[in-house]
Specification:
- This protein has nine helices and five strands, in the order ααααβαβαβαβαβα.
- Helix content is 56%, strand content 15%.
- Helix 8 links the parallel strand 4 and strand 5.
- It is of the alpha/beta class.
- The chain has a five-stranded parallel β-sheet with strand order 2-1-3-4-5, sandwiched between helices.
- The longest helix is centred in the middle third of the chain and has 25 residues.
- Helix 3 packs across helix 9.
- It folds into two domains: 78 residues, Methionine synthase domain (Methyltransferase, Methionine Synthase (B12-binding Domains), Chain A, domain 1); 120 residues, Cobalamin-binding domain (Rossmann fold, 3-Layer(aba) Sandwich), CATH 3.40.50.280.
- GO terms for molecular function: cobalamin binding; metal ion binding; methionine synthase activity.
- Keywords: Cobalt, Metal-binding.
- Belongs to the methylamine corrinoid protein family.
- This is Corrinoid protein.
Length: 209
């Protein structure tokens, strides 16, 4: 991607106030909402994810980019719904029971949206039974579980067990400060996302496998 579109660049730089006008310019130029998402927003968020992964930017910059992305989606999502556009995949994401932290979850949610995945965010402090209910109701392709506290890691295991008991074939990804690949293997998760930057690549590699 030699030439970065101004909208992609605005997402990368977190220029939230510029984004709505740039989105409108794209639409006025005849680009469909789907095209704007796939060719303008996704490349921008992929650059953000890559830079985060390489320690070129950190959580504050990720949050600013995510907010810029959100301001674009606020305009585009109603158009996409009206046009009958369907994202490639559907995800459920939440922080597990006993844990009220949501920054990491919110960043992953934005990265997934940026990768053309529909995200149903259940929120924080979600018990295992709620995960199972949501999976049975929404039939997602992937579920993301987040935990920031060591004390809430057992709740992750409970949630994974409950999700598997539904019998719905779904990929499960976990992440958060105390979580490791070993723990992911131990509890039967399909993947471990070290950070929000790797979460989109991980999800897509699992979903397209």
């Amino acid at each position: 991607m030699d030439h970065i579109h101004p909208l992609s660049q605005a997402i990368i730089n977190g220029k939230r106030k510029l984004v709505p006008d740039l989105v409108q310019e794209c639409l006025d130029a005849g680009e469909t909402a789907q095209f704007v998402v796939e060719e303008r927003l996704v490349p921008g968020m992929m650059v953000v994810g890559e830079r985060f992964k390489n320690n070129e930017i950190f959580v504050p910059e990720m949050l600013i980019a995510a907010r810029a992305m959100k301001s674009a989606l606020a305009i585009l999502e109603p158009i996409l719904v009206h046009d009958g556009f369907k994202p490639d995949f559907k995800a459920i994401i939440a922080t597990v029971e006993g844990d009220l932290h949501d920054i990491g979850k919110n960043l992953v949610s934005m990265m997934w949206k940026g990768a053309n995945i529909e995200v149903i965010d259940l929120g924080v402090n979600i018990p295992a039974a709620k995960f199972a209910e949501a999976v049975a109701e929404h039939k997602p392709n992937i579920v993301g579980l987040s935990a920031l506290l060591t004390t809430t890691m057992p709740a992750m295991r409970d949630a994974i067990d409950a999700i598997k008991e539904t019998g719905h074939p779904v990929k499960i990804v976990i992440g958060g400060a105390p979580v490791t690949q070993d723990f992911a293997d131990e509890v039967g998760a399909d993947g471990y996302a070290q950070d929000a930057g790797t979460a989109a690549d991980l999800a897509l590699s699992l979903l397209k496998a």
